[in-house]
Amino acid sequence: MLPVQTGRIPIGENVPARPLLIDGAFEPGSAEPFVILDPATGAPIDSVAAASPDQVDTAVNAAVRAQHLWWGASQPERSAALHAVAAEILQRKQELADLVTRETGRPFSRNLLYVDMIADLFRQYAELARVHGGRIVPSNESGQLSLVVRAPYGVVATLVPWNYPLLLLAFKVAPALATGNTTVIKPASETTLTTLLLAEVFAAATPPGVVNVLAGSGRTVGEQLVGHPHTDLVAFTGSTEVGTHIGATCGRMAKPAHLELGGKDPAIVFDDVDADLAAKAVVWASFLNAGQVCTSTERVYVHRRVHDQFVDRTVQLASQLRVGDPFESQTQIGPMRNQRGRAKVLEQLAAAQAGGAKVLTGGAIPEGSAGFYLEPTVVIDVDHGMELMKEETFGPVLPIMVFDDDDEAFALAADTPYGLGASCYTHTPDRVRRAYEEMSVGTVWVNDPVVDNLAAPFGGMRASGNARELGLEGMEAFTAMRHVHWNMRMEDKPWWYGENSG
Ligand code: NAP
Ligand code: MG
């Protein structure tokens, strides 16, 4: 943990109501206000007025106008603006990390790292876009050029969840802007303040209309952006339920939709690794951000030979985690983000227990805690008939099953409609090969779970989505291909209708 101390941002009236960013100007929302709760206390942080349908429309139209100028600018100009975004983010690092801690409940020290990461992302795509273009392919005849040109889609509707409000936004907005798109962002309601603070960064570093930031619910502002005739691509991260609904709307309009959705990531612990160390890794991968990571380890399969040792060590480590105020420098696990999410996790746990599962540590709301805390929980005697092993559990729960051979382990890991990530712990190359050949997932982690590499593509398959972000692939995803067939002389063609042709 980094030894950085910070103070809480004052509650309520002391916090200036943050306005929306529309066409380069800050203005208050003109629809109903909504309240944002502090996950660590359950008390209100602030309220924000939502965008009205007219404001959504104005923002999209501004993004359409700005897009022509933004794409018409030179690549060095766009890249310079993205470098300015990165510099401004770092300038406001403390402020951003403070507010994201307040709104998400994730420990402050982690949030400092994430602010660095988003600055890094803007720099990465500023540089990649400077050198990555289209190509020239062989043409039909001599005297012709066949250019494969990369062009922006136009206006990107950016919709992100509350668990990583800055990072997941940067995954989309940095490559989208770098390649000449403009955007209208709708943050998750629960992390609106953080995103409106980031809006000040964009306003300082990009031309009016290139980035617009709204506030409001998914059902109103989100739906309008997705269905708007002038948004050209929807870039969404969130639940499978909402994502598939958005995909259906986009499908009816033939509008492309990047969907980064939920997961039920397995971990397989083979018998050729140090079981104590594997327990340490799995505990980190399960309880990071109170288990509210799309790629959290949600199911663990352990070889019988190392099972008991692994379980004992896991329980010991989980029960020692320091759960508490996210602004305390010693805190490892903060609260969950909302009451609704905690209630769902507790329901899954209760159902599993009714079906014979045994909770070895945790499983309860810490005594006397305000806010949305839940103890880190380790569960055994689970099976695939239980919701806990089938549905996404967006909270701090680590269920463990035993296996006897590799075939059984891979079959259990693959028994899911999701396909986001999977991790395995082994020193055996053939097990690694089986992991990446047999598992229908976007990421396989070997001995080092749930880390991002900004240079490599990230995303899911099946119920976990259809897109790739990060890396070169994550930039190409924001460009449409265009073919230019250019006959360099104007000359007659034998197949054109002539006087003697049939
Ligand atoms: P969510 O409920 O699906 O919401 C995501 C975003 O969509 C929010 O901004 C939400 O706005 C908006 N939204 C809701 N309904 C909408 C609609 N009908 N039309 C348009 N937009 C709508 O997800 P969440 O609960 O915030 O986040 C947790 C989920 O995200 C988990 O399932 C997690 O696995 C997933 N996730 C996936 C990844 C990945 O990369 N694959 C990464 C992180 C998280 P409101 O906040 O106003 O409802
Ligand atoms: Mg939600």
Write up what this structure looks like.
The structure is a single chain. The protein is of the alpha/beta class and 502 residues long. The protein has 2 domains: 19-261 and 465-484, Aldehyde Dehydrogenase, Chain A, domain 1; 265-446, 3-Layer(aba) Sandwich (Aldehyde Dehydrogenase, Chain A, domain 2), CATH 3.40.309.10. Helix content is 39%, strand content 19%. The protein has helices at 53-72, 75-91, 93-104, 108-131, 167-178, 192-205, 218-227, 240-253, 275-287, 304-320, 339-354, 387-390, 406-414, 429-438, 473-476, and strands at 20-22, 25-27, 33-37, 44-49, 135-137, 144-152, 155-159, 182-186, 211-213, 233-237, 257-260, 265-269, 297-303, 358-361, 377-380, 397-403, 421-425, 443-446, 479-487. α1 packs across α7. The longest helix is centred in the N-terminal third of the chain and has 24 residues, at 108-131. It is globular and about 85 Å long. It starts with 19 loop residues before the first strand and ends in a 15-residue tail after the last strand. Bound molecules: NADP nicotinamide-adenine-dinucleotide phosphate and magnesium ion (MG). NADP nicotinamide-adenine-dinucleotide phosphate is lined by residues 159-164, 168, 186, 188-189, 217-219, 222-223, 226, 237-239, 242, 245-246, 260-263, 294, 392, 394, 420, 460, 464-465.
